[in-house]
Amino acid sequence: MKILFITANRVGDAVLSTGLLAALIRQYPNARITIASGPYGADLFRAVPQLEHLIILKKRSWNRHWLGLWRECLGTQWDLIVDLRNSIVSRLLRAHKRAYHKHRSSQHKVIQNGAVLGLQPPPAPFIWLDANAEREAAKLLPITRPILALGPAANWPVKQWPIERFLELAQKLTAPDGLWPHAPVMVIGDEKERAQMLLLLKGIPPERRIEVLGKDLLTVAACLKQAGLFIGNDSGLMHMAAAVGTPTLGLFGPGYEDIYGPWGNRSAFVRTVESREELLSRLPDAHAREPNLMGGLSVERVLEAVKKLLAKTA
Predict the structure, then answer these.
(1) Strand order in 148-151's β-sheet?
(2) Handedness of CA 196, 290, 166, 17 (dihedral sign)
């Protein structure tokens, strides 16, 4: 059996699609699967069981990336095409059955993805790790547990909680009288984000600081799996942490927690005192950039949310 799975370009959306992919693997254990993914999240799929081909869709002018995908898949008779991008390509290929992500909804993205195949309850996101990722994680992480993991970046600057608050939060959680006294602190992000994280990195004692910057996504996922708690902005990292089962607290302001909150009973979110609508009204237009809109989320409010989450997942 041949399955073509066309997934999202952004890391977060790609993570949220993995539950649907896992359901397909369980339903068709002998299928050979081709996955088409954007370059940012493609690494998440390298260890997928039954993977025959991973196609990386690099965006090109005039939508020529879709033409490339069509050419690459044209010679195959597909038994099933699952297209979460609702592209024209999946309609131009030979297939016995097709399933599309047809319209937007106010439901959580995981529920929307499950609805593509009529799955109830919707399958939870899941990340497959390989031996290389686990070896790399073992090199980076100390034996000391628990580890506090932080994700201080986001793809939209206005969604980034002020970096000085991440530092204050880490200091309070790992203080001698904190929830996790003297715990190691893992800071995760892209190497190009180092400059914006510098205050946080310098504020964590070197002997307790773990830098996971610029690592491939599966190594990051393997590191997140070993953490005792992840706290981070509304981002792909947040969804990765939840998908590997780590207690995850997402920080929200102008984002859509009802659609993109971290998924699962080991996850929670906390948001600014201002509503999303109030925050977005401050932007002069949809493409505006401001330092952040997260000032209405205090460290104390996040600490309270951490306590509730840890009590729930204990």
Answers:
(1) 209-213, 185-189, 148-151, 229-233, 248-252, 267-271
(2) negative
Strand order in the sheet with 78-83: 51-56, 32-37, 2-6, 78-83, 95-100
Give the model confidence (pLDDT) of 115-156 as tens digits: 999 999 999 999 999 999 999 999 999 888 899 999 999 988
Cβ count within 10 A of residue 51: 17
Q: How far, in Å, CA of 180 to CA of 176, rounded?
A: 8
**pLDDT tens digits for range 154-187:** 988 899 999 999 999 999 999 999 999 999 999 9
Q: Residue 266: pLDDT above 70?
A: yes
More confident residue, 73 or 290: 73
CB of 125 closer than 8 Å to CB of 8: no
How far apart are alpha carbons 150 and 238 in whole angstroms?
9
pLDDT digits (tens, 9 = 90+) for 194-217: 999 999 999 999 999 999 999 999
Q: What's the rounded Cα separation, in Å, for the pair 10 and 163?
A: 23
Report how far Cα 12 is from the mean position of its chain's Cα atoms: 4
Cα dihedral across residues 128, 267, 19, 112: positive or negative: negative
